[in-house]
Amino acid sequence: SSQEPIEGIHSEFPRLNIDYIHHHRPSASAQRNIGLRYVDPDTDLIGFLDDDIVLEDGAMEKMLQFWQRAPEDLGGCAFNLRNPPLRKELPLKNSRLAEWLGVYSKNKGVVTPSGWHTLSGTVSETMFVEWLPSTASVWRKSVFGKFQFDEYFDGYSYLEDLDFSYGVSKKYKLAVVAEAGFYHYPSPSGRISQYDFGKIEVANRLYLVRKHGLSVPRCYLGLLLRLLVTLGASATRFDTGNLQRAVGNCVGLALSRL
């Protein structure tokens, strides 16, 4: 979705049969759905790789070996993230109260009743989960006969992978393949302001919860908890970015009641 066409990039790989499709408006969901329409009918597996990841040597071979022995009801797999971001432990978020209210869980790769999801991080052995990030993942092609990416998640497509994969998990198994590693080096480009993100994280979370029949009251509790955590980070670190995010959260919450 870059402003300028980049046909020259695929000329670096002259022996590969590459179709280049330019989609001007940024939208991970729309772009993936368009790409899926161009997949060869004889294809069995479809992969999504973000442009800021690096696969570990041998990772693709390990992933394909896993698929060769995979059960029929396996719908998708994620590569194993070797360099998860360091996150400061948040007592309120990780409290027994938050888990009892269903707004958080200590288990990896799950979706709570509030619609909040937990990260898988780096797994030491292959693990079945309830959702997969699309950062580096491989899917059974037949899945896309029943599921597509929801284009409600337009522009900065926050939670589009959670929405898609959680829907798939209701009919198929999902796994993180321990042996197939990758590294993620997030690009600073393509980001939005913290204020806009604050609004989007409220709107998209509520949309996801309502779509999948999860608990709207618990989602609001989770959003309020998220707001308190963000305000706390802003106050203790004198962080204007978190303050802008908190203001965006407040606007998003106010608009959600209309």
Using brief descriptors, characterize the structure shown.
258 residues, alpha+beta, 6-stranded mixed beta sheet, 6 strands, 14% strand, globular
Protein described:
The protein is of the alpha+beta class and 258 residues long. Helices cover 36% and strands 14% of the residues. The protein has seven helices and six strands. The protein has helices at residues 28-37, 59-68, 96-100, 160-169, 194-211, 216-237, 240-256, and strands at 45-49, 53-55, 74-81, 127-129, 136-140, 173-184. Strands 1, 2, 3, 4, 5 and 6 form a six-stranded mixed β-sheet that branches. Helix 6 packs antiparallel against helix 7. The mean pLDDT is 89.
What's the SSE pattern? HEEHEHEEHEHHH
Percent strand: 5-15%
Termini separation comes to: 32 Å
Number of strands: 6
Overall pLDDT metric: 89
* Tally of helical runs: 7
Derived structural class: alpha+beta
Tell me, what's the shape? globular
Stretches where pLDDT falls below 50 for ≥5 residues? none
The percent of residues in helical segments reads 25-40%
- Main pleated-sheet profile: 6 strands, mixed
Q: Report the radius of gyration as a whole number of Å.
A: 19 Å
